[in-house]
Amino acid sequence: MSYTTVISPPRQQSSALKLKGFKVYAVEQPCTTKPHFGRRDYFKVILMTTKARLHYGHQSWDLDGTYLLFFNPHIPYSMEMLADFRHGYISLFTEEFIAPLDRSESLHQSPLFKIGSTPLVRLQEGQAAFMTGIFQKMLAEQEADYPFKAELIRTYLQLAIHEALHLQPTEAFFQHKNASSRLASQFLELLEQQFPVESPQQTLPLKTAQDFADRLAVHINHLNKAVKEVTGKPTSVHITNRITDEAKALLQHTTWSVAEIAYSLGFAYATYFNNFFKKQTGHTPLACRKAAASISWS
Prior knowledge:
45% of the residues lie in helices and 19% in strands.
């Protein structure tokens, strides 16, 4: 049995998050069908026992067991649930909540959250029990009257992150083995740096494989060969897929007009964008927005 879902908080929990910068809740429910990528304005650390297929940016993993999952709000993701039930805990937080005021390094650069990272850690039984205890403490403190509970919860959350870094396999701190791997990584990071699009007045500076080759100071054939060798996909496919993902997110999570979205994604005319989007998804932009609006979050 296969389901597709996006792990998202109920509406009232999302509102509470924006007020406090943090929310944690337990999950013990049947899987639901929500077939689109999710993107919100917060980071997520999830402790989940599940059988699923995770799609995160342009990477995919098959999950079967207990995992810690780390989601960056700038990277779209989805999970195809392959079992009838899932259980665990979900914590959501802003970077302002987790980071001290004097911290110079962004959470986006953390080995667990940065672009191109492996956003999951498989847990053994003892490790899962320890992490469960941390999430249960956060859940209890969330409901407590302790005046410094935000600081205490932040400590628990940082402990979970550091424990994950301690458990993470050495390939998470992978050093590129050759020039092709290094160049492909530079391309993918440069591609992701353009997103998310924050304003209708903003437009993508790099839209074609030639644009990326020029920025990286390499011949386009060299770039295409390296990216295809390392990822199995041509440079143009990565660009097309990423623009399509961003288009879906903007249609679902903003009130911008189709013309504004088209401009921000580098299309000179809305008709060009309409044709591109329909070719990639099989639907018009307005149909995609209408379908997203009809989904009831539960």
